[in-house]
Amino acid sequence: MNPLLAKLQPYPFEKLRALVQDITPAAGFKPISFGIGEPKHPTPLFIKEALSDALGGLSNYPATQGTEALRQAIANWLEKRYRLPNVNPATEVLPVNGSREALFSFAQAVVDASRPGALVLCPNPFYQIYEGAALLAGATPYFANSDPARNFAPDYDAVPAEIWQQVQLLFVCSPGNPTGAVLGLDDWRKLFALSDQYGFTIASDECYSEIYFDEERPPLGGLEAAHQLGRNFDRLVVFSSLSKRSNVPGMRSGFVAGDAALLKQFLLYRTYHGCAMSPAIQAASVAAWSDEAHVRLNRSKYVRKFQTIAPLLGEVLDVAMPDAGFYLWARVDRRTGLSDTEFTRRLLADYNVTVLPGSFLGRESQGTNPAKNFVRIALVAEVDECTEGAQRIVQCCRSL
């Protein structure tokens, strides 16, 4: 077996199962899970219909590059969403089977493990795929800790110059998982300057970009930042997905866009990787990327939930509105006296509500795990269920 597999940690949800395996939740409460970030709003009917209408395509092998129709739909969406003048669907867009597999495989294609000391820089806390992708590419992950003073955006200023010199790939997550932090134009200016100086590639994970709270202020994207700063897309690719935007996580449909030279090589890798998207999924994806009405409706549900639940939980926990996304990042120890793992066990045992300990999403870096004593609360269910779960969390905190 590949010896690098031994470096992988158990996935956060495996750690969660082990943490609570001996707990029997209190009778009288139906289970409510804020643990996994799986959208629970209904999938729009027109996407289902587009999928079923295209089932005849299952008799054909799909091309790894995807159909021209899908690449054009994605390019059109990018141009409209990020006010880009021209995105070339033939060279700057590549459909993928969800952002997870693409983020992982991109590291395998980009990292040169033959260079001594190869580093992949990740936010901390972070989406665990970044670490696994780095390790299995033969690199070492290095973590930039979140800064509470900047609503938990990564503190890139604290990364030493000798580290930047070894970085081959920078994973950015904006809006962030789990913190919801969005990078601003000054952040991007700094990262682009560092990329120019040291030559590393930026992989921007933007799968939460369409969950935000002000229709007039959508989160800034990486390609958008490059355009605003008068740059091209050199050494920059962004990853996005329909999972959160359109409530279709089971479709496994997303894209990578940006640097044409990088995408040409990534396409070569993927041709051997065997990861072409099903023709039926491609047809449904064209329909989804071409419609914004369902996205605005979906967003309005999250706005309602956060307007209700963030103030409610703020009465008992240290929690604030995120910049975007569908997670609340709540510190529990100061006001409950419990660690994140103790709070998670107590909440499940007494009120049958599941949250995810923040420490499972972070790593010890520069002498601290910045996710310790936080919990991630995924407000993915419908508003009534989320509100009931939040009320139980309040009751739990007040009973301590």
TrEMBL record:
<dbReference type="InterPro" id="IPR015421">
    <property type="entry name" value="PyrdxlP-dep_Trfase_major"/>
</dbReference>
<dbReference type="InterPro" id="IPR019878">
    <property type="entry name" value="DapC_beta/gammaproteobac"/>
</dbReference>
<keyword id="KW-0808">Transferase</keyword>
<dbReference type="InterPro" id="IPR004839">
    <property type="entry name" value="Aminotransferase_I/II_large"/>
</dbReference>
<dbReference type="InterPro" id="IPR015422">
    <property type="entry name" value="PyrdxlP-dep_Trfase_small"/>
</dbReference>
<keyword id="KW-0032">Aminotransferase</keyword>
<dbReference type="InterPro" id="IPR050881">
    <property type="entry name" value="LL-DAP_aminotransferase"/>
</dbReference>
<protein>
    <submittedName>
        <fullName>Succinyldiaminopimelate transaminase</fullName>
    </submittedName>
</protein>
<dbReference type="Pfam" id="PF00155">
    <property type="entry name" value="Aminotran_1_2"/>
</dbReference>
<dbReference type="GO" id="GO:0009016">
    <property type="term" value="F:succinyldiaminopimelate transaminase activity"/>
</dbReference>
<dbReference type="GO" id="GO:0030170">
    <property type="term" value="F:pyridoxal phosphate binding"/>
</dbReference>
<dbReference type="InterPro" id="IPR015424">
    <property type="entry name" value="PyrdxlP-dep_Trfase"/>
</dbReference>
<feature type="domain" description="Aminotransferase class I/classII large">
    <location>
        <begin position="32"/>
        <end position="390"/>
    </location>
</feature>
<dbReference type="GO" id="GO:0009089">
    <property type="term" value="P:lysine biosynthetic process via diaminopimelate"/>
</dbReference>
